[in-house]
Amino acid sequence: MATDSEAAWPPATLLRGFQEAGEQAFEQQTELMRRLLAPPGMGAGMPGMAGGSLAAFKTRVQSGGRLSIPDAEREALGIEEGDIVQAFVVPLPGVSERAE
Q: Can you give the pTM of this predicted structure?
């Protein structure tokens, strides 16, 4: 249901639709990556992955190209400082600080 501000500015509904479509695409990409990393018959995931664990999250690229893994994901995966991890990066075009 549209709020008064959305009714006054119809592009807000369109922008919300773009954001929802982006989130759905992200979820689908995550599911495909899970399937890739844990094909049938391989059990918990690819060899070398701690218990077949996988996390998906959005993060911002910081200075020097640095990415941060959120606390909750680090704790859930048992990642500690100095650990080596493998990352799959999927840009989210059109997503900005204002859209989050």
A: 0.46
